[in-house]
Every structure is written in C-alpha cells, then in structure tokens.
Amino acid sequence: MKSLTILKVYFVIYLVSCLILIIADWQLIMYGGISKISFMMKFILIGFGGLLFDWVLVKTIKNKKVFHGLELLVVVVFTIIVWNEL
C-alpha cells in the first residue's frame, strides 16, 4: 500500500474480521448450508467493493479536505448499513 487512507484501513480491518469470523465459526458455515456461505460471501464482496471505491476516490479527488470528508461519510454510512444487516 502506497499511502494509507481511512477507507483502506477500515475495509482491511473489516475483511480481516470477516475472515476471523469464518475461521472461528467454521462448523456453522460448513454445516449451515448455502445461505450461511452466501451471507459471508456477500460481506466479503462488499469489503472488496469498498477497497475499489477507495481506489476510485484516490484517483479522482485531489482536494484532501473533500477526500477525507467523503471517506468519513462512506465509513459512517457503511457502518450503519452493516449494523442493520446483522
């Protein structure tokens, strides 16, 4: 990673926590059926989508105040959405 941004750190922590949850709860995922696997894959894909969105923001927005403001807004909105999904 060339430079750390708020979104990169947030989504890397998010993806690591998804992987820890999969490892810690592997029996439920293995025997829970396809719905549990698709549920976790959805969250992992959302995490990679967030990293892609961060890359787009880094490439397009040059003003640092606007950039950090948008990143904080995305973090807050994403946290609310994930909290409601659980």
Structural write-up:
It contains 4 helices and no strands. The chain has 86 residues and is mainly alpha-helical. The protein has one domain. Helix 1 packs antiparallel against helix 3. The model has no long low-confidence stretch (mean pLDDT 84).
Q: What would a concise description of this structure say?
A:
The protein has helices spanning 6-24, 26-31, 34-60, 64-85. It is mainly α and 86 residues long.
List keywords for this structure.
86 residues, mainly alpha
Strand residue content: under 5%
What is the share of helical residues? Answer: over 70%
Return the domain count: 1
Distance N to C terminus? 30 Å
Strand tally = 0
Q: Please report the number of helical segments.
A: 4
Mean pLDDT: 84
List the helices and strands and how they pair.
Elements: H1 6-24, H2 26-31, H3 34-60, H4 64-85
